Amino acid sequence: MSSAKFYVTTPIYYVNDKPHIGHAYTTIVADILARYHRSLGDMTFFLTGTDEHGQKVQKAAEAHGITPQQQCDDTVVRFQELWRELEISNDKFIRTTDPAHKKVVQEIMQDLYDRDLIYKDEYKGFYCVPCERFFTNKDLDEKQCCPECGRETQEIIESNYFFRMSRYQDWLIEYIKSHPGFIQPDFRANETLGFLKKPLGDLCVSRPKSRLSWGIELPFDKDYVCYVWFDALINYISAAGYRRNDEMFKKWWPASCHLIGKDILTTHTVYWPTMLKAIGIEPPESILAHGWWLVGRSKMSKSVGNVVNPMDMVQKYGLDAFRYFLMAEMTMGQDASFTEEAFVTRYNSDLANDLGNLASRVIKITLRYGRGVIPAPGEFTEPENELNAAIENAITEMEKALKTMRINQGLEQIMNAVRAGNRYMEQTAPWNLAKEGKTARLNTVLYCAAEALRKISVLLHPVMPNKMTCLREALGIKNASEGHLDSLKKKANILSGLQMHDLDALFLRIKPEETEVKEQAPEKAKAEPPAEGLITIDEFFKTSLKTATVLAAEKIEGADKLLKLQIKVGSEKRQLVAGVAQFYTPEEIVGKNIVIVANLQPAKIRGIESQGMLLAAKDGKNLKLVTVDGDIPSGSSVG
Ligand code: MSP
User: Fold this and answer.
1) Fewest C-beta atoms under 10 Å: which of 2, 109, 322, 391?
2) From start to end of 117-233, where are the E strands?
3) 10 CA → ligand 1 middle, Å
4) Atom 12 of ligand 1 has which residue's CA nearest to it?
5) Does residue 483 have its Cβ closer than 6 Å to ligand 1?
6) What is the pTM of this model?
């Protein structure tokens, strides 16, 4: 990594309710990125915290019959405790009720007001309480529901203060276009640019105290408080020393990455950059929007009663496995489905079978045939070269994944290296080498297997710090808890001569009866392997096929076979690159209800991200899209 500084943030969480796996996910992503960067020796600052003002918190306090401050103080502890349990390594925890933060918000407001970038006006609007957002008539449908969450809005006429956001519209469009990677994934940048096609209004940044008193008082009008989003976004700079500690601020700003969920894209990619422009500060280097965790196929919701409490999973299956699952299961940018069944399946295959098995084999065999001392290797042959290539590939891919913040992609390659490790053991069969007295060869195999395990443990350390420390301890490594990534680049042999210790199973296999859910007949699938060329029903169901509607299509310059499509899959928007340009014009394909492979790893085709693949039938000269017979909403599953 070239960058010597890494400043990562999570959204600051509302204190109207307790945390769930959605909150845990973002915070664990930030934690893992921060741990990787620290391990590379980069100066790292990881910020998280709570968003404590606004109507949501005031309403929650009213419902509980306590003061808003009490509501904040009671709930903030739940977040802080959860982060401790999840071993989150944040450097700072900001609360927007901190006096230091409030003062910075007031100074910024005063400065913008003095420069006429904030002005007073009468305003008619529609307010959505859950989203804390104002909308004008043109944003709403005929039922006047919130365009973000679909709930009813309240009509409000009042005098308020406005930030001259509209002034920065052209600048922002230009900035986004000229800074690829500023908003990630690319399709979210397109979404923001789409939003900016409509004229950008000024932003209402105050609330009269008569309606909402729980907020930061405006320094130039004591009858008003600051709009919660204006206050909240400023946390990213107030926590980094803005206006208080120039040296600190210079060190950390611009932030390397704001991690956010897809629902808070506009506030972060429109409000925030324009606010910073007006204040006179550079935008953050990147804003990365992830998808949502669904429970099965449904949205998590208190009223449905399907909210997943992260601690339930941690208590049942252990912290490291939970952190691993969240990272491996969600493709950055897209929604993911959480089920205990999916958890158990991934746990058993990646952790118990692949990684746990490799660790236990290498350690047990070395204890048995080498008295536990890691030997010095002899000459490397083809199997060693293959194993090393898989490990080197995992290192390179993890480095890339860090730069692009796609942890799941790095993990896939690490798991490929783990599987290469298991193949290596089978191929070289050290137990036979021992029987046949081929000691020199046995030594090479034991060393290479241990070295592969060490490198894998270092690569996985930020994701599973406890288990990987145990693993390195078992290899006999001193300071096992450190696991520095830069040790991967060193060629020196640091293992030979170390004394291994036995290790209890790193990840015990979970039996289906230990979960509330049934695993899908794994024993049967094992007992009766399918005939050659056939797949099992389980294998088929690994492919998620969904219906989707094509919203927009365009040709790709220099690629006469490809079309770039914007599609809708349920509430989600995605981008596909499809090889259909010789059979469909962009005009013909728009509006079609197609079928896509929805869980395909995103790929870049001609430098353009493609999130899935459409299905089509082809016979040499003809190509016809696969569609469904009749009306069914986009996002429906096919199979
Ligand atoms: N307070 C604002 C953020 C201000 S940042 C300056 C806020 N808070 S929140 O508590 O409602 O949401 C925090 C984050 O949780 C958002 O990024 C949101 O996307 C994320 N999630 C809420 N539910 C989620 C899932 N089901 N899955 C994944 N993340 C989701 O918005």
Assistant:
1) 2
2) 118-128, 133-135, 154-163, 183-184, 203-204, 206-208, 217-218, 221-226
3) 9
4) 13
5) no
6) 0.79
Domains contained in the chain, CATH given:
339-489 (1.10.730.10), 537-638 (2.40.50.140)
pLDDT at 527: 38
d(CA 195, CA 292) in angstroms, rounded, equals 21
Q: And the tokens for 498?
A: 């170390």
Shortest-distance Cα residue to atom 18 of ligand 1: 261
| Angle subtended by helix axes 68-85 and 55-64, to nearest 10 | 100
Q: Among the atoms of ligand 1, which is closest to the Cα of residue 259? A: 17
Kindly report the average pLDDT of the chain as a whole number: 90
Residue 336 Cβ < 6 Å to ligand 1 = no
Helix (H) or strand (E) holding 48: strand 43-51
Q: Are 375 and 446 in contact (CB under 8 A)?
A: yes
For tokens 């991200």, name the residue: 609
Closest CA to 290 of 188, 401, 150, 190: 188
Q: Which residues contact 553 (CB under 8 A, 6 or more apart)?
A: 563, 564, 565, 566, 584, 586, 587, 589, 590
Which residue, by CA, sits nearest to atom 16 of ligand 1? 261
Is 263 touching ligand 1 by the criterion CB < 6 Å? yes
Whether 51 lines ligand 1, by a CB cut-off of 6 Å, is: yes
Q: Which residue has the higher pLDDT, 468 or 132?
A: 468
Q: Tokens at residue 512, please?
A: 């289906």
pLDDT tens for 180-200 read 999 999 999 999 999 999 999
Distance 483 CA to ligand 1 centre (A): 32
Is the CB–ligand 1 distance for residue 11 below 6 Å? Answer: yes
- For a mutational test of ligand 1's pocket, the pick from 263, 302, 334, i.e. the residue with the most ligand atoms closer than 8 A to its C-beta, is 263
In this predicted model, what pLDDT tens digit does every residue of 440-486 receive, in sequence order? 999 999 999 999 999 999 999 999 999 999 999 999 998 877 767 87
Which region among 173-187, 464-478, 521-535, 620-634 has the lowest average model confidence (pLDDT)? Answer: 521-535
For ligand 1, whether the C-beta of 308 sits within 6 Å is no
CA distance 57 to 55: 5
Q: Which amino acid is at 304?
A: V
Q: For ligand 1, atom 15, which residue shows the shortest CA distance? A: 23
Report residue 167 as tokens. Answer: 């002034």
* Residue 33 in this model has a pLDDT that exceeds 90: yes
Best probe residue, ligand 1, of 10, 129, 257, 292 (max atoms within 8 Å of C-beta): 292
Query: How many angstroms separate the first and last alpha carbons of the chain?
Result: 43
Tell me the pLDDT band of 522, cut-offs 50, 70 and 90. very low
Q: For ligand 1, is residue 86 a contact (CB within 6 Å)?
A: no
- State whether residue 415 is helix, strand or coil: helix
410 Cβ closer than 6 Å to some ligand 1 atom: no
Question: Which alpha helices (DSSP H) does 210-339 contain, by range?
Answer: 228-233, 235-238, 246-252, 265-266, 272-279, 310-317, 319-329
